[in-house]
Amino acid sequence: MKSLQIAYQEEVVMLTGDDVLTPEYIQRLYQLDQEVRNTKSSKNLTLKDVCFMIPKVEPSLLKLLDYNDTRVDPSSQMNPALYCSFVESMRKECYVKSILDLWGFKKKTIMALTKEDIVNAINVESDELFGKLKSHKDLLGMVEKNETGHIVGAKALYNYWYLTKNFSAIDMEKVGNMAGTSDWATEEAVDWEGLFLEILEKFSQSKEMFYYAGRSFGDISNAALFQDMDLIVFGVTIMILYVQLVISKFNFVEMRIILGFIGLLSIGMSFVVGSGICSLIGVPYGPVHTSLPFLLMGLGVDDMFIIIACWEELTAEEKKLPMERKIALTLKHAGVSITITSVTDVIAFIIGSSTIAVIVISIICAGFSIESCMKLEKKFNPEWFIPEGTHLGNFFSARNTYFPLVGFDAGLYMGAVNYSHELTNIKRAVDKLNEISNTTENVVSWVDPFRDFVMFNFHHDVFIEPLDDDRFSIFLTKFLMSPKYAQYQGNFIFERELECGVPAPKIKLSTIDFFFKKSSETQQQISAMYQVRGIAENINFTSGDRFATVWSKFFATWITDELIGIEVLRNLQLALLCVMLCTIPLIANWQISCLIFCCVLITMVDVCGLMQRWGVNVDLVSCIGLELAIGLCVDYATHVGHTFLTVSEGNRQERVIKTVTSIGSAVLYGGLSTFIGVSMMSFSRAYTFQSFFKIFFLVIVFGLFHGIVLLPVILSFIGPSPYKKHKKPAVEESELKPLDS
Fold first, then answer.
1. pTM to 2 decimals?
2. CB 442 within 8 A of CB 531
3. Which of 69, 192, 236, 501, by CA, is between 20 and 30 Å from 628?
4. What stretches pass through the bilayer (predicted)?
5. How many structural domains are present in the chain?
């Protein structure tokens, strides 16, 4: 950013229809353009105050130069002082890439246009001066041509306004947002963009106009942080009612309202403390954090049910002990629950009568899920964070429909090397970019035009005989000040400002622009990225800082796609290993620990398999969800496995029945509380919430099934012996006395 200093930012409008090359659409676009240019923002700013400026070439000056009548360039043949006086006399205008430029933005001409006028203009237009800057045909989408290859219609039309982006004047403390997704922009640009969005909202009442501003992604993603507050409130209300129904008894003495609220208060405390600690260590509050209240609602109350069940299981003698001792005994047996419901009785009956069916169902699910896991895609797109129905979401949808083949813009960046001696190396790199036509397209290089310019005007082939530094600087200034080649000024960053008639300053940075071809396959995009990077690495500069690299704003997404699969697999393996290492010393039984590990492993396989069928890819969001899922599903199997070891009476079958009827309902209550907590996310339009809901719904379903159905079935066949009982010391007589005696 420090090297670039000045850049531009796009403000885009897309008109769509059966045929946008009609007077109606062109005139509507003109009205919009005038509104955008002339309306003032809250800080009294107009487009002219914030736009990216380029020279305005008057028709009279074009006629005077008349360079189209000869191949000789006036910048090389005219008297430098005279020519530079012409260049410096040019007024600046806002850089607007628009089809309206074909008619000079003249109202009278545009209002009198016919369909034939528009078609003729778009087919014969050729801007020698601005070339790639003002090419109009690439503004059209879904173009229709006649049998002679001429354009006769189009279904979409782009219009661009460009704002100046001065990186040295940007203060992200003022223009940033809580989501950390705001774009780099000055305060003035952000203020004007607010006006731009207001104008477009007014103009886009129909479904035929789509738009976005530089601040759109940041605004919408930031708003998404708080757009579901109503769901949080509703979820808290439902959770309060659910907790009261589970922990209370239906009489006025044991309603336990205060106890329920205290239990739920821990959720809010966890959220505040967790967010505060993250902020303290440098982890900002972002889009993913918005799902925490829902997750904590589900995860924060399930242990409450286990603790209350253990409290009620205390014997009559234990209930006479001091409060501290009773709490200690409750937490000691927190893996056991005595709550008995009809649901767990049914589960116990299933275990006794249909053990084979449970195993068969588990095997079928696992086999189906393994096959689906093999099809999981590693794919992430930041556009998914934009909710449907927003102006930016609608724009992305329309762009994919009307411009499906437009690729990803990128650039080959070269540093402060000796360009006069490195031109042949740069030429080879450009040729290689053109050769890999299956990967790149629209390569725009200044190297060949510079060689042609010098060759024709000065009869010197720079590829055969390199220029000395002084002559290179002189020729480069003439080249970039030429009417035909001035379009390449944006490909250079100099140590100081380029001046007409003065040898070019030392080059700090230069670029070769190109596009990556669009591909739906993630691996193809990653391969293309490394293929082009290899070209940059093999330029082999021998002078200056030898810097050469390829960059695109889409690289962040592609690198994420590349690494996320490795990270997910590694993190899941480490999490499963931690499950095993933690359960062995805590459960103190290797056989139960292995069975718990198997339940967690099968659950995760089923979750990943059904994820693929449900349309969830492996990305940043699902990666977090899967890692949290392991911690959730291990609870179900651990409670059942531990309780089985504490039941000592009867054979395996009887111990399993006792286990399920004593702890099963508490585990089920915990699973239901988690489901209630995350179910509110299903009503959100946010991608993060939708992904988390799908993952946690699957975790709850398969985790409960494997924990309170499959595991008991397995234990009924190969369950280990119970813990050895140790004789409990008699409760001291003093401890049995009433506390008030």
1. 0.72
2. no
3. 236
4. 231-250, 257-285, 346-370, 574-604, 616-638, 659-683, 695-718
5. 2
